[in-house]
């Protein structure tokens, strides 16, 4: 593993979100990974931070609420099939790691694993979380993304405690 400065490659991380990256979390002996296409990287409270949004309906949300930590694995090679599986199936119903031929690998500083061989990894500990408030959102964006009026996201602001590539 080669340690990297996540903020120094922030543009690369943000560009990777457009097609999708993996967010993994674990709690009580259970592990799940999901696909995210929204997020941000920056500095808050004097620390490098990754902001992730997870819908309350997701299995990962249940685990994240218990663990308060997650990893982000950013593919640096073709992982389209694994992204497709992890982005369309629920960890409640299948073992995504088996279905997508993914291998969890122990993190350096947190209990949640990264995805072995994915490329770039961020280990994140939640500093603050906030449920989205529908009344605070721009009307057009609310209609576009939450037209049915439900399944709002929780925003997790997490310190990047380790960042590296394999």
Automatic annotation (TrEMBL):
What's the domain of life for this entry? Bacteria
Q: Tell me where the signal peptide lies.
A: none
Which intervals of the chain form a coiled coil? none
Q: Recall the GO molecular function terms of this protein's record.
A: FMN binding; oxidoreductase activity, acting on the CH-NH group of donors, NAD or NADP as acceptor
Residue ranges of every copy of the Flavin reductase like domain listed in the record: 20-148
Q: To which protein family does this belong? A: Belongs to the flavoredoxin family.
Protein's UniProt name = Flavin reductase (DIM6/NTAB) family NADH-FMN oxidoreductase RutF
Q: Which organism is it from?
A: Pectinatus brassicae
């Amino acid at each position: 593993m080669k340690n990297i400065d996540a903020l120094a490659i922030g543009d690369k991380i943000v560009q990777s979100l457009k097609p999708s990256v993996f967010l993994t979390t674990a709690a009580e002996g259970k592990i799940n990974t999901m696909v995210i296409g929204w997020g941000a990287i920056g500095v808050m409270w004097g620390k490098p931070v990754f902001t992730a949004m997870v819908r309350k309906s997701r299995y990962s949300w249940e685990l994240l609420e218990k663990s308060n930590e997650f990893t982000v694995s950013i593919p640096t090679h073709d992982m389209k099939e694994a992204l497709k599986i992890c982005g369309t199936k629920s960890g409640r119903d299948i073992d995504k790691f088996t279905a997508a031929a993914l291998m969890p690998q122990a993190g350096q500083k947190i209990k949640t694993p990264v995805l072995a061989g994915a490329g770039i990894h961020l280990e994140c500990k939640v500093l603050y979380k906030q449920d989205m408030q529908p009344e605070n959102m721009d009307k057009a964006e609310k209609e576009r993304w939450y037209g049915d009026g439900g399944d709002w996201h929780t925003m997790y602001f997490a310190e990047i405690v380790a960042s590296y590539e394999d």
